[in-house]
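User: Show me a protein chain along with its predicted structure.
Assistant: Here is one chain, sequence first, then structure tokens.
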Amino acid sequence: MRQNFPNPFNPSTTISYELPHSSVVRLSIFNTLGQEVLTLVNKFEDAGFKSVRFDGSKFPTGLYFYRMTAGRFVQTKKAMLLK
């Protein structure tokens, strides 16, 4: 999974990732309290390069975390929303 771009962002950013094998993918956004505030992807996807847009226009300014799970792969990164 790549770092979102742009970062910091206002109001939207793109999160890109590459799947070496087809798998069930879950990509979720969390606030600093660890609460899941949005699920961007939750489905079976074929192998290849993917990207998804996170629209933060309905969320307050602050630090967010996004976590991707695909098979046994789990990774979390930070994104900063500035308004």
